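User: Batch of two.

Assistant: Item 1 of 2:
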Amino acid sequence: MNRLAALLLAVLGAIGLLAAPRRTVKVAVFTHVPAISMDAEGQAQGFYVDMLKEVAEREGWDLRFVPGTWQEGLDRAQSGEVDLLTSVGHAPEREAYLDYGRMPSFTVWSILYAHPRAGIHTILDVRDRRIALMRGDVNGEHFRELCGRFNLPCTFREYGSFGEVLGAVAEGQVDGGVTSSTFGYSQETRFKVERTPVVFSPFDIFFAVAKGRNPDLLRALDAYLAEGRTRPDSGYHGAINRWLTPQEKGVLPPWARRTGLAILGLLALATAIAFVFRRQVRAATAEIRALNAGLERELAQRRRVEEQIFHVASGVSVATGESFLQELVKHLAQATAADVAFIGESVHENGAARMRTLAVFTEGGPAENFTYDQSGTPCERAARGELCVVASGVQEAFPRCPLLHDMRAQSYVGAPLVDSQGKALGVLAVLHRQPLASPVEVTSLLRIFSARASAELERRNTEGARALLERQMQHAQKLESLGVLAGGIAHDFNNLLTAMLGHMNVAQMKLAPESPALPHLESLERIIHRAADLTRQMLAYSGKGRFVVRPYDLNHVVQEVTHLLEVSIPKKIALRFHLAPSMPLVEADAAQIQQIIMNLVTNAADAIGEAEGTIRLTTGSLKVDRAYLEQVFQGQELAPGTYATLEVSDTGCGMSPEVQARIFEPFFTTKVTGRGLGLSATMGILKGHHAGMRIYSEPGRGTTFKLLFPVTDTQRVAETPQVAAPALTRKSTVLLVDDEEMIREAAAAVLESLGLSVLTAEDGRQAVEVVQREGERVDVVLMDLTMPHMDGREAFQAIRRLRPNLPVILSSGYNEQESIQDFLGRGLAAFLQKPYTLRALEQTVLAVLAKQT
């Protein structure tokens, strides 16, 4: 009984399964022969239909094919009227409403067809032409982008299907039309259109569904494709082979058949009438046979070109990034049977145009890249934007090109690579060691793929420029941050030195001339000045170190420091000067430029070491353009124009690229002893002078620092000799304002030693209160710039409101240009740079008081 029940249940289950409804899957169909289309009886056909039927049988689907245009299929997918789309390429605007399968179903590329009388042979020939595109098609969008990159204006007309596109071309409604490779190759003879060499943008196509709907359809199709693409005997490959196998075409065109029939008729007539015409008939027959053989060769050649294009496109479509260029030259060499294929970019080194290869394929594999001079080579012609084709005897045509000799080349074909703005980027070239048998075929291939190679080079250059800009910004930000730190430290250090120098000057005044302590104080004064020099280096590093800027001749600046240079380097090292006879003037601080020269010369001497060597100082002028300025050290923003140049070169050990990348970092040094501030200060001084630097150095071959200073039209003004401070005619009162107590004590002692009365204030707020309280008693104000509560700027404005004619002397640990920027044109009486000596304080204060009497 139990067995009978179990058997009954099994039978009922099987009946239930048989009765289960099959899932209906609606598939959009558009005219895309041989991929998918509707035949005359209204039945769907094509290799996609065969694939879907195989999957439907496996998955239990009931397929319903919905015909329409491609755009209608996209719209129906969004609205839910269809469940599945075929032949869908990725496009940004489709990502919002479509989900794609993971596995590509096929790889296609785009082809431009033309009317036979349109005369379109290259992409450049489409300028101002009428071009047909299928509405909503990725191939058409690729063509629009291609025309945009080459700046080619066209009139685009949209049609509902590829068939309408080629029909419009055939009827002369448009000059050309764009289709996919699968449709074009199968239908071009039916429409009697001309296939152009403009083949571009290989891309993968996928199955797709409406976003968020029917993911199970994509999973089933992905599984089918993953299995089928790897097995040559699968249903996937069977479907493609059935529909893409080329159909046998007649070997003779219609005119040839008519000519053959006519000749055969003449032959029959000649045989019937007289034997005398037999020889002529035989000759005509031989001519027809030769023509037939030529046509067969032409057809075979065209099939070979198609196979080569497919081979190259398939090879490079999967490559990305750095591997793309290597894959390109590899497949191009194989397709053209070239012995050497390479892609190179144009570069400028030391003023000469050179070609640097990015990928080389020879001897059946990749080879190392190399650089060579363009001058006298066929690449020079190609780099100018000309297609260079030398089918044989290329070494004789270009005898100055060692590359051709080294490669044993007999032929050369090179296509220019240009970006979207028409700027030359480089060359794509192939070399053969035998005369070229089919130059037209090779030229067509290079024309096709030079556009894709150009786009890749432009992308690489754009990314490189962006990375360079990021490095420059990071470097500038690092210099700015360290500059702010160095400037702040120098300011505080100058306050300490000012107090030390003031107290020491007072001590010197109070000691008798014969006191044994005076020599020690003089030594201390020299030490303080050396410390002040260090703070000036720190200010220079921060880019705020200019003090006295005047028009100078660089020759005079160099000559003034010549003796100091000669005694600063070992006698084994020869110092040579090559000064231009006439130099334009530059706006500069001579002392700081001399500091740069000293830093560079001492570094050069250290690089030479104990050996004999030479250091050369060379001046001149140079007119530079933007390309040259791009090679100047990062962080220096210079404008094209005329610059005065100063070069310091040595025969020392040179520098590696790693050392060059760090030489301007503060506290970085390769010396056994040293602070590592010399070149950091040099960069700060150059920044303050709006100047730049270029470095030439190789390990073992010495180093050259080339400085560029912007020239000025301002004429040099003769310096006025210093005069002694005027004597006071009455006792005056000085208001001394500084937040540092030690500076107030030291400066007050110095001022009182001059016979002046001194009032003090700790900040700007107290200074204003003193002026309000003391009124006309205050004759001059000596005030620090940086103070708490109320700084020197605010206090100056408040004092000017109370006493408009009261002279104010500003004092700061920063330099004069940085400090008085906000006081220009407001009546500032004078400026004192910290640390200042008793002599400087006396001259400044007494000179200001003398003007008030």
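Item 2 of 2:
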Amino acid sequence: MNPFEQYKSLLEQAAPVAMRYHPDAEAIIAEWQERIQKQKIHVMLFGAYNAGKSTLINALVGREVAKAGDVPTTDVVDFHEWDGHMLLDTPGVNAPIAHEEISLEQLQRADLIVFVLRQEDQDASDIMNRIFELLEQNRPIFIVLNYEDGDPAHIEAIQARFTHMLLTYAGRRGFDKAALGTVPTILMNVKSACRARLENKAVLLEHSRFDVFMLRFREWLVQYNSEKQLLQQIYAGLERSLLQTVSASIVREATPQGDMQEVDAQIGHITREYRLLTNAASSKIRAELTLRRPMISEAIAQGGSRDTVMAALTQVGESVSEIVQTWLEKELKQNVKGRIGAALVADGLELPKGSDAGGSEFGNKMLDAALGGMKGVHKEHVQTLLEFGRKLKIPGLKGRWTKTLGRWADKAAPVIQVVAVLAEVAVDYYGEERDVQESQDRTLQRGQWLDEAYSQLYSGLMQSVTDVIAHVQLEDLQPVEARRSELRAKLGASDKDRSDWAALTLAFQDVAF
């Protein structure tokens, strides 16, 4: 879920407790909900009047919310909510003059721009000049080239032709050609994507390249610091105006409950430490992949076969996976519990029972299996270990069905399999470089390919690491959460509120991109 949507949901959960302890809580929450609503990033779809803007919005939303047709159907700006963002459907370029003025006026207020053009529009000077006017203004722009012909060879030719046109216009306008490599350009059959989404046709969805578009589009959306900064600003304001004030009020009214406070503190420190570990893992993966970008670039520059490129990507994925696996194993087995223990000791508390720094024998075997999964341990091996733990009546595994354990085992699937699948998508999308007109065209395409490969390798590696961390965190939290449930059942209303508010505060802190 989008982080801003998470804040809205958490505020709704917080309202009943907050209103019992803060006289202005209802007004404060309403004000924050309105601010979050208004501060949504506005993504404007821009382009010719029948390029497929409304159809793309319908594909994103998953239902027909925008009018689409071959003649101008939009004469005002329509707003559609999607994943915590606002999609703006506007009259197109080359629409009636009054309609076009509406688009240009809205363009000045838009945060991000998705420029949609048909494959026949790539030769239209007014369309290409519009693109470069936005680029010269340093506007964030994502280009969707809407094609109709599904022949892979034709798609590749369309890509090469459009790349050539971008470079040609860049030369004419004196625009830095190297900067074009940072502009996401995705080919997609928008009409097929919309139909697939509305009719839930997975094969057609993949054929339309909607999955490739979504992967790149989401990466593009979250890279802008303004969203991250806004998230930080919202949390800081919520902390000052609501979280701290309600917490202080509850503490004044609640009867001190030593055991419950200790358990809440244990949960807080465990959650906080694993959140920091996840952030550190993200930085580690990015740093290691950055060091290996030349390897990926070289494989692409050589123009090798699919197998050659896949082998290079797999080698990069394996090398990074091995380094991160070794680092993560040390963090989880030696450092994390020590840091949690030190933080608890500083608060005059102890580690939860059974959470010694070395971990239990079974817990370490579980961790070994999860970490080993990053190097190729099969799902069946992990499931066997989980079932063994259930037979030993390990807390949390007792009574679980084999089907459930199978789902857990899926989380330890080899990261290289994930990387291979993601890399296959990238190879299918860009295809081999054939019959490209100029060396500059190849350079630009390789740059876009490199960004795509880097992004997908990161996503695959990070997903695997996140699954391992989440699994270990769950194991650490399980006995503490069980203890919390036992104690909570014996508490009075105000003490329950204090404990629930502490949990909500942690949930607010955990919201992130």
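The beta strands are 42-47, 78-82, 85-89, 112-118, 141-146, 185-188.
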